[in-house]
From TrEMBL:
Region described as Disordered: spans on this chain: 14-33
Keywords, ordered alphabetically: 4Fe-4S, Cytoplasm, Iron, Iron-sulfur, Metal-binding, Pyridine nucleotide biosynthesis, Transferase
Organism, scientific name: Nonomuraea thailandensis
Recorded metabolic or biological pathway in which this protein acts: Cofactor biosynthesis; NAD(+) biosynthesis; quinolinate from iminoaspartate: step 1/1
Subcellular location: Cytoplasm
Full protein name: Quinolinate synthase
Residues annotated as binding [4Fe-4S] cluster: 122, 245, 335
UniProt cross-references to PANTHER family, sorted A to Z: QUINOLINATE SYNTHASE, CHLOROPLASTIC, QUINOLINATE SYNTHETASE A
Lineage: Bacteria, Bacillati, Actinomycetota, Actinomycetes, Streptosporangiales
Length: 383
């Protein structure tokens, strides 16, 4: 690879990367900004590819990468954007694996989706495997409950989990439309199996839809029958999968108390992937796009503590210097898998495309694509 592109890189995550771990670590400050020469190489490669290329960037990406995105957004907006560009031959996805899979599902067969580093996975998506979910469904069938249950999966899940939902009458949702997706699901059935983020499911059900915590049970895929009795399953309205985001799961109720003490009058704004007790203590809750819009509209001089990924919070603090924007927790914490996409990997992917070599292409097989698209289309059709 290095010989082909002239780029002296050790490409992490190519095929297998035994020295890394999916999920999150907190290495403190990021390494210094990438070599300015690489910035020029990325610019040139992009220019050479012209309209053949469309670069999507999730809000949690590093600044050095986001500067090359044609569109930035949360996972919902990026899925819409991927579907809206049938003319682009290459979609380079600066985000994580499940997002690139969704882009492949929503684009035409002629379009190629590239993820610059294959180690850019998501620990939450990995918490629900197809076999585990099938096992859960079989248990619900054995209990005579499956025909009442509509599976809804958060966008942050693998393509085969989305396909599972499509096949079984369910849908995908994102953090911007979870409420609407759940309203739709409860029109189709009496219970919902919500995958894989228990926090988004619980926060939406309890705080937005007026359910009680007792209406929710947690299915633990590592215990027989999910660790739940038949009576618990019969009583539940929301069966929450035992998954969570390693980044948003770090914020605690104490982080909120602490920031309120440190910054009088602060507004606490958190992502719904945060734990229930954190969201309960916050002033506002919303998806990444919602967080950005709220800060855009906030008056100058107002103070905000934000509970979401640090790349985005730092960028927001730079974008709105007239507002006092800080990270909710004292500990510096990035999403380490989002951070896998750095400028060297982006340059490598783009220069390879210029040379006619499609590296790190993400492809989803035809059957999975069909059923995952059914679930994604149900989401895209929500009012
Ligand atoms: P959204 O992009 O839907 O806000 O989700 C946040 C996230 O964790 C993406 O990985
Ligand atoms: Fe996954 Fe959380 Fe990282 Fe998003 S922020 S990619 S949900 S680990």
């Amino acid at each position: 690879m290095a010989a082909q592109t002239g780029l002296p890189l050790y490409v992490l995550g190519r095929d297998a990367d035994p020295h890394s771990e999916k999920g999150v670590d907190c290495p403190g400050e990021l390494p210094p900004a990438s070599d300015p020469e690489l910035v020029e190489r990325a610019r040139k490669a992009k220019e050479a590819l012209g309209d053949r290329l469309f670069v999507l960037g999730h809000h949690y990406q590093r600044d050095e990468v986001i500067q090359f995105a044609d569109v930035t957004g949360d996972s919902f907006k990026l899925a819409q954007q991927a579907a809206a560009r049938p003319g682009a031959e290459f979609i380079v996805f600066c985000g994580v694996h499940f997002m690139a899979e969704s882009a492949d599902i929503l684009t035409t067969d002629a379009q190629k989706v590239v993820l610059p580093d294959l180690a850019a996975g998501c620990s939450m998506a990995d918490m629900a495997t197809f076999d585990q979910v099938e096992e859960c469904w079989e248990a619900l069938e054995d209990a005579g409950l499956a025909d009442q249950v509509i599976p809804v999966t958060y966008m942050n899940s693998s393509a085969d989990i989305k396909a599972f939902c499509g096949r079984n009458g369910g849908a995908v949702c994102t953090s911007s439309n979870a409420r609407r997706a759940l309203d739709w699901a409860f029109e189709q059935g009496r219970k919902v199996l919500f995958l894989p983020d228990q926090h988004l499911g619980r926060n939406t059900a309890v705080l937005e839809m007026g359910m009680s915590l007792d209406d929710c049970v947690v299915w633990n895929p590592h215990r027989p029958d999910g660790g739940l009795s038949r009576e618990q399953l019969e009583r539940a309205r929301m069966i929450l999968w035992r998954g969570h985001c390693s980044v948003h799961g770090r914020f605690t109720a104490e982080s909120v108390d602490d920031v309120r003490e440190r910054i009088p009058g602060v507004n606490v704004l958190v992502h719904p992937e945060c734990r229930h007790e954190v969201v309960l203590k916050a002033d506002h809750v919303g998806s990444t796009e919602h967080i950005i819009k709220t800060l855009e509209a906030a008056p100058a001089g107002s103070s905000w503590a934000i509970g979401t990924e640090l790349n985005l919070v730092k960028r927001l603090a730079q974008t709105f210097p007239d507002k006092n924007i800080s990270f909710l927790d004292r500990t510096v914490c990035y999403c380490s898998t989002m951070n896998r996409i750095d400028l060297p990997h982006l340059v490598w992917a783009l220069e390879s495309l210029v040379l006619g070599d499609v590296v790190n292409q993400i492809t989803v097989d035809a059957d999975t694509t069909h059923w995952a698209k059914v679930a994604l289309d149900r989401m895209l059709a929500l009012p």
